Write a sequence for this structure.
């Protein structure tokens, strides 16, 4: 009898310990420590969770703070402004051919995406990609920094016009801007055709290519200290029958700074050598089949 | 060439893996993984590859019945996203116990996308491990 009681006690203790072990909650929200490079340094916009973002924005009183409507400086968002695929305009016949040509030839991988080999995203893809962005305004120029690929473009505000026949096409194009009331308007052209406007994220097997006739128009209006209304108009009559418009409101990240997120070819190579990703032809199952949960 | 934050152990074991000859690429979709269910795989860390484009967990899982060891891989999001989850380069080292809940490859190979990561004592480090801001496609 004594052995049974001891056994039951031990079993109960074991079960209780097991319960507490498996019931351990994950640390969430503000409990998650913010990792910075050191004192005075800030975490990147994507390096903090929503609780931290909300806390930072509340402390900065972003909804009520006085602001200059012609000041769009600061770190905005952490997830880009993804192109609105629900409103993709119809393709022209030429545009359809260009789109079809981007179809991947490797199942599960968007194989023809130039990003795979760390080619520059270019504009507007850098704008749409899911990392942060920062505006810095200086006399004669507004600089727009894109966290992914750690690059920037210069929007000239010194009154110059867009080049009609640039000597060199650019991944980020040529951009000029001016203020129209309280809206900062940007026009761009002269884009390198090797970039995609965006990956087609509906099925991730295509990309949206563009022609050298691509033009973009943007509008930025600061709604309050913490919000920036953005509109992007993609105009490429060779590819689309009408402009492709995306609008969004980005939020200020008052306590973040952009990280250095280069696309590093050697990292891509190492990742790929590490991970033998499964393909339609099948990599061999070398051992146990997983036990389904 | 190894990143300075990567510590590899038992590399010879990886030679047991047949390398796929098709060039494989980062920034892939999750189409090859079964996202309708998860599997739980307990094991021992072989590598905690803290780097971009994806943080990668490599761990050895032993079949208790046969004693056979299979090396699994599971990728998470970028370093930046995983910092927001509370993970760091010090979260794991080779030899640590780990419990991975993953979406496994549809073809039965030991590749996966991480859903939840637990230390050996059951502490949940992240779940879902997508940067704690909701579902994101891996980039």
């Amino acid at each position: 009898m004594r052995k049974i009681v001891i056994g039951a006690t031990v079993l109960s203790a074991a079960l209780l310990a097991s319960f507490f072990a498996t019931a351990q909650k994950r640390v969430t929200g503000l409990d998650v420590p913010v990792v910075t490079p050191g004192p005075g340094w800030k975490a990147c916009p994507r390096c903090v969770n929503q609780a931290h973002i909300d806390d930072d924005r509340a402390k900065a009183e972003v909804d009520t703070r006085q602001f200059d409507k012609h000041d769009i400086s600061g770190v905005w968002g952490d997830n880009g402004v993804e192109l609105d695929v629900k409103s993709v305009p119809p393709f022209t016949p030429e545009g359809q051919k260009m789109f079809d040509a981007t179809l991947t030839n490797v199942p599960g991988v968007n194989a023809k995406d130039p990003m795979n080999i760390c080619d520059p995203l270019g504009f507007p893809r850098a704008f749409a990609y899911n990392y942060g962005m920062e505006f810095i305004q200086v006399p004669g120029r507004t600089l727009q920094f894109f966290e992914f690929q750690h690059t920037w473009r210069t929007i000239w505000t010194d009154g110059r016009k867009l080049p009609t026949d640039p000597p060199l096409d650019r991944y980020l194009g040529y951009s000029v801007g001016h203020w129209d009331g309280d809206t900062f308007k940007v026009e761009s052209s002269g884009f390198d055709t090797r970039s995609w406007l965006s990956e087609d994220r509906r099925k991730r097997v295509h990309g949206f290519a563009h022609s050298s006739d691509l033009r973009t128009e943007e509008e930025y209006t600061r709604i309050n200290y913490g919000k920036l209304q953005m509109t992007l108009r993609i105009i490429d009559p060779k590819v689309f029958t009408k402009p492709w418009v995306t609008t969004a409101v980005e939020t200020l990240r008052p306590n973040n700074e952009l990280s250095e997120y280069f696309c590093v070819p050697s990292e891509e190579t190492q990742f790929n050598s590490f991970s033998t990703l499964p393909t339609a032809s099948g990599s061999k199952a070398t051992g146990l089949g997983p036990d389904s949960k | 060439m190894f990143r300075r934050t990567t510590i590899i152990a038992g590399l010879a074991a990886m030679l047991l893996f047949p390398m796929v000859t098709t060039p494989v690429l980062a920034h892939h979709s999750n189409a090859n993984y079964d996202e309708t269910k998860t599997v739980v795989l307990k094991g021992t860390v072989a590598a905690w590859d803290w780097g971009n484009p994806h943080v990668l967990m490599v761990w050895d899982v032993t079949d208790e019945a046969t004693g056979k060891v299979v090396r699994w891989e599971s990728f998470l999001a970028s370093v930046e996203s995983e910092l927001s989850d509370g993970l760091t380069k010090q979260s794991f080292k080779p030899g640590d116990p780990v419990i991975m809940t993953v979406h496994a490859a549809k073809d039965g190979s030991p590749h996966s996308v991480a859903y939840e990561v637990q230390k050996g004592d059951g502490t949940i480090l992240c779940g879902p491990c997508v940067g704690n801001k909701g579902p994101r496609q891996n980039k």
In short: The longest strand of chain B covers residues 39-49. The mean pLDDT of chain B is 78. Strands of chain B lie at 39-49, 56-62, 69-75, 97-104, 111-119, 124-126. Chain B touches chain A through 69 residues (CB under 8 Å).
